[in-house]
Design goal:
687 residues, alpha/beta, GIY-YIG endonuclease, Rossmann fold, 4 domains, seven-stranded parallel beta sheet, six-stranded antiparallel beta sheet, 17 helices, 22% strand
């Protein structure tokens, strides 16, 4: 902070557009000295924006007339130095401006409010009534492995330099109870707790568990809050303020919550840490899991990463001793893991009328489970009725005119819908190419599977849960309640239902058509498929009191594949070793470090020319720059997408090169006016 003739110069992080080249905080004149972390409103161009007074010395230039700060949010305590450090690190690592990142992670409503309006919101918080007194809940006894894990985490809470803990527990082994006990210890020590989950649909379930456990110990209003994108702007601001003021002792949220301002943070939990949802796919493409580990290290507090199928990066850190591994190898209550049966599709006799999804043996098994009044789950990772409509005369298929992808047939509303750009049309009555009225669906999605199951098993109560069936508010909660209450016999769904849900009544899981990921060009596809199938299988047999064995069937054309063989034995350790050996020999992450430069333009030539010119700017011989290639879905909404991979053996080397490269790319974009957008993705998940 510098003084210039009575006024004080302050640095303010403000959301300046990346192409402007204004990446760092900007200088403004203030009538009073302002603590770093103070929220302010400042002019930028013709607009007035929310900004944060940033730590560090302002460069006071007396001859420059600085614009004054327009308003100061003095009613709110400043954001902490640790929060500013987290933002500084994330902005630097993921190559974004700190102002852009701050604007993206603060509650949107803060941008619209004046200091007076914010003061009114804070008064409203003070008037929140306390919860009614409730009795202390009965805690379930801990299994020996759980007790050992809890003791190790509690020891880390007391340590000056705790190590990240990888809680490797099979599905149904009681990981949530370990989180609850760890949170209990942190809360008892007067600290705040942050719990991250990958998807919004898991937040209400976990929130109910934590509220039930801690309602007696945290009766104050807003002591337990959630932070995710499904909240209204007013709810999001209220919950963020509660965390920032220290009133919220426990914050549950999706990836954005890793940036929650929590002045007394003492423990971070990342549930299902392997899940790709923790990686932001636009704007600042950060990984919430990696930032959680960095934040815990910076604050010297424990972080617990939990999963039945850890990411190979986390597993490698545990193998090398960087993370402490805590293992829960047995299910709670003596429940057995489902027996996995690999069903060889090649051995099936070719029978007329038998589809590749609903085979005769599968229907017979579902019928037997129905007769025993058991729930079943049929898992197919493709929504919609069928991937494409097809004309047998001229071979027309329902492609999207704006994307290099097929439009999916949705029977319920008789539409063809592109899942990439959203382009939707009514289903044509005849082939638009040759006029043939006999156009038919090829392949199947969850919608068609639901219909076929209802036809094949009359009387069965079939329910589909996917992104299409849960669009309206409250639909997902109502559908999950129906499953838990036993009002559903067969559940059909996508990966949405494979994660984290504690379905006590399901005894049988069938995975149909999972083979596609085995032959993907993305080296992470096998890891994702294995995790998804292990998670789907983990929904079965969670209640140990049932007599019949829990089973999972995988209908595959590649029964001998190493991935399925490891799955049949529930052998994640063997699968991880094989995958890591392959990645080590191929020089792939976690043994190398990647960045992806993406470019979008109206023509392939324009996007490619930008990437070729960008490659020429990288002068480091220790970096490997691959030639530009089209994105997996090369065209979306009439925009061509190309990408170029940069690989380094050392993370620091890659970061140093990116720091010089990104400003040069901003200048390069001015020469390549045909390029609509470009972005650098550090540690990309989808290649």
């Amino acid at each position: 902070m510098a003084e210039t003739g009575g006024a004080v110069t302050v640095r303010v992080a403000v959301d300046a557009p990346q192409h402007s080249g204004l990446n760092g905080p900007l200088d403004y004149a203030s009538e009073q000295a302002l603590a770093s972390g103070t929220l302010v409103r400042v002019p930028l161009g013709k607009r007035e924006l929310l900004g944060v007074v940033w730590p560090g010395e302002a460069v006071g230039q007396p001859e420059m007339a600085l614009r004054p700060v327009a308003a100061v949010f003095s009613v709110l305590p400043p954001l902490g130095a640790d929060w500013c450090r987290l933002l500084d690190f994330a902005a630097g690592y993921y190559q974004r401006s700190v102002g852009e990142l701050a604007s993206a992670v603060l509650p949107p409503q803060l941008r619209e409010l004046s200091p007076e309006q914010l003061a009114a919101r804070l008064r409203k918080l003070d008037k929140k009534p306390a919860s009614a007194a409730v009795a202390e809940p009965v805690k379930p006894p801990l299994a020996p492995e759980q007790a050992e894990a809890v003791a190790r985490i509690q020891a880390q809470l007391a340590s000056d330099s705790p190590k990240p803990a990888l809680l490797f527990g099979v599905t149904g082994s009681g990981k949530t109870e370990v989180y609850l006990r760890a949170a209990e210890a942190a809360l008892a020590a007067g600290r705040q707790v942050l719990v991250l989950v990958p998807e919004i649909n898991l937040t209400p379930q976990l929130e109910a568990r934590f509220t039930e456990r801690f309602a007696a110990t945290c009766p104050e209003p807003l002591a337990i809050v959630s932070l995710h994108s499904a909240l209204t702007p007013a709810q999001r601001l209220q919950n963020w303020l509660a965390a920032h003021l220290g009133r919220a002792r426990l914050v549950l949220g999706t990836r954005l919550a890793v940036f929650a301002s929590m002045p007394e943070l003492g423990l971070i939990v990342v549930d299902e840490e392997h899940d790709p949802s923790y990686k932001q796919q636009d704007g600042a493409r950060y990984s919430a899991r990696d930032l959680a580990v960095w934040r815990a290290h910076d604050l010297k507090v424990p972080v617990v990463l939990g999963s039945a199928t850890p990411s190979l990066e986390s597993w490698q850190h545990a193998e090398s001793g960087r993370y402490e591994r805590l293992t829960l190898a047995a299910r709670i209550g003596g429940g057995a893991l489902p027996r996995v049966k690999l069903f060889d599709m090649k051995a099936l006799p070719p029978t007329a009328g038998v589809t590749t999804a609903l085979t005769a043996p599968l229907l017979a098994e579902l019928k037997a489970r129905l007769e025993r009044r058991e729930q079943s789950l049929v898992f197919l990772n493709r929504r919609g009725y069928a991937p494409v409509l097809h004309c047998g005369e001229c071979q027309w298929k329902s492609d999207c005119p704006h994307c290099s992808a097929w439009r999916v047939f949705h029977k319920r509303d008789r539409t063809l819908r592109c899942h990439h750009c959203g382009f939707t049309e009514r289903v044509p009555s005849a082939c638009p190419n040759c006029g043939n009225p006999d156009i038919a669906p090829i392949g199947r999605g969850t919608e068609r599977l639901e219909e076929q199951l209802a036809e094949a098993l009359p009387g069965a109560r079939v329910l589909r849960i996917d992104a299409d069936s849960t669009r309206r508010k409250g639909e997902l909660e109502a559908q999950l309640k129906a499953v838990h209450d036993g009002d559903v016999d067969i559940l059909v769904g996508t990966q949405m239902i494979a994660k984290g849900h504690d379905f006590r009544r399901i005894r049988f899981v069938a995975a149909v058509n999972p083979d596609g990921a085995l032959f993907s060009s993305d080296f992470r596809a096998p890891e994702r498929l294995f995790a998804l199938l292990m998670q789907a299988g983990g929904r079965a047999g969670r209640d140990a009191s049932s007599d019949s064995p829990a089973e999972m069937w995988v209908q595959t054309w590649h029964r001998e594949h190493a991935l399925y063989q490891a799955l049949a034995r529930h052998d994640y350790v063997r699968f991880a070793k094989t995958q890591l050996d392959e990645r080590r020999s191929a020089g792939l992450p976690p043994f190398s470090h990647l960045a992806l430069l993406r470019a979008e333009a109206r023509t392939v030539e324009a996007a490619k020319a930008f990437l070729v010119a960008a490659a020429a700017l990288l002068q480091d011989e220790q970096l490997l720059v691959y030639p530009p290639v089209p994105h997996a879905v090369a065209r979306v909404a009439d925009v061509e997408r190309m990408q170029m991979l940069v690989e380094a053996t050392q993370r620091a080397r890659l970061q140093a090169s990116l720091r010089d490269w990104v400003p040069a790319l901003i200048a390069l974009k001015r020469e390549h006016k045909a390029v609509l957008r470009w972005a650098v993705d550090v540690d990309p998940l989808a290649i």
